[in-house]
């Protein structure tokens, strides 16, 4: 049973515009979330995280929003750049494991 | 700098052969994980370990085994490789539920 879901397999955005990647989860006990970025032929790398005590965390062009009542989080990238083209995974650590979504492939068009 | 390395980066093997993928981390992390990445499935957990001599099955553990004889290494063994095990394999390590650090991946093709 998929506890973390990313329902959009792919997303295309024009350079300079906002990219919004979405993630839903089913376990209301999850209290910490991470976003990973993955380029082809490389391992995933940590991008940004958010704790459930916050509803927003910002790091440069990247902002993650958390809506606990809806069990939903989103990653905003503003402005989007061609170098942001990658697969993005959301993840929730729980019980010393990490539950990953299926990923969203972002393409930023120059 | 601490790191996590996987070897080989690419491997082609025949059906029925035993294959071992290596994972070595210098973070001194207790937790280590093996995932496979397949289109449409994201990262699926194969096996994981919380410390030396500890191993646990993940959601897709059939046909795979691991052993943890020291903190740094968690080799993944395919007992009898099958075409369904053609995939990209990632090893990761973490300390508790802080961020996990991933290796570069091993692309395995079973022919």
Task: Provide a quick synopsis of the model.
Chain A is mostly beta strands. Chain A has strands at 4-5, 10-14, 19-25, 32-38, 45-51, 56-59, 62-67, 72-77, 86-94, 97-100, 104-109. Chain B contains no helices and 11 strands.
Q: What is the oligomeric state here?
A: heterodimer
Total number of helices of chain B: 0
- Annotation, overall tally of beta strands of chain B: 11
Using the CA coordinates, give the radius of gyration of chain A.
13 Å
The helix content of chain B is under 10%
Largest interface, C-beta closer than 8 angstroms, per-chain residues:
A-B, 23 and 23 residues
Described by the principal axes of the CA atoms, the overall outline of chain A is globular
- As a percent range, the share of helical residues of chain A equals under 10%
Strand content of chain B: over 45%
Structural class of chain B: mainly beta
Strand content of chain A: over 45%
Order of helices and strands of chain B: EEEEEEEEEEE
Order of helix and strand elements from N to C terminus of chain A: EEEEEEEEEEE
Low-confidence stretches of chain B: none
Integer-rounded radius of gyration of chain B: 13 Å
Amino-to-carboxy terminus distance of chain B:
37 Å
Outline the biggest β-sheet of chain A.
6 strands, mixed
Task: Explain what you see.
The complex is a heterodimer of chains A (110) and B (111). With 110 residues, chain A is mainly beta. Chain A has no helices and 11 strands. Chain A has strands spanning 4-5, 10-14, 19-25, 32-38, 45-51, 56-59, 62-67, 72-77, 86-94, 97-100, 104-109. In chain A, the strands form 2 sheets. In chain A, strands 2, 4, 5, 9, 10 and 11 form a 6-stranded mixed sheet that branches. In chain A, strand 7 and strand 8 (72-77) form a beta hairpin. The radius of gyration of chain A is 13 Å and the shape is globular. In chain A, 35% of the residues are buried. Chain B is an all-beta fold and 111 residues long. Chain B has no helices and 11 strands. Chain B has strands spanning 4-7, 10-13, 19-25, 31-38, 42-51, 54-57, 64-66, 76-78, 87-94, 101-102, 106-110. Chain B is globular. Classes of the chains: A mainly beta (110), B mainly beta (111). Chain A binds chain B through residues 6, 9, 32, 34, 36, 41-46, 49, 89, 91, 93-94, 96-98, 100-103, and chain B through 31, 33, 35, 40-43, 45, 48, 50, 90, 92, 94, 96-105.
């Amino acid at each position: 049973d998929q506890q973390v879901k990313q329902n959009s397999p792919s997303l295309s955005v024009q350079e300079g515009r906002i990219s919004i990647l979405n993630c839903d989860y089913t376990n209301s006990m999850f209290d910490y979330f991470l976003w990973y970025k993955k380029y082809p032929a490389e391992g995933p790398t940590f991008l940004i995280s958010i704790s459930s005590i916050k509803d927003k965390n910002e790091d440069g062009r990247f902002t993650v929003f958390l809506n606990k009542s809806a069990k939903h989080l989103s990653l905003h990238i503003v402005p989007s750049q061609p170098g942001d083209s990658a697969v993005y995974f959301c993840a929730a650590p729980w019980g010393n494991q990490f539950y990953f979504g299926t990923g969203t492939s972002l393409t930023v068009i120059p | 700098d601490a790191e996590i390395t996987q070897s080989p980066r690419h491997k082609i093997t025949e059906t029925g052969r035993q294959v071992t993928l290596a994972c070595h981390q210098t973070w001194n992390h207790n937790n280590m994980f093996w995932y496979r990445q397949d289109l449409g499935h994201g990262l699926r957990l194969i096996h994981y370990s919380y410390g030396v001599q500890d191993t646990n099955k993940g959601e897709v553990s059939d046909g795979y085994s691991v052993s943890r004889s020291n903190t740094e290494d968690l080799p993944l063994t395919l007992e009898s490789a099958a075409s369904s095990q053609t995939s990209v394999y990632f090893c990761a390590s973490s300390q508790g539920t802080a961020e996990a650090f991933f290796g570069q991946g091993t692309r395995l093709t079973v022919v």
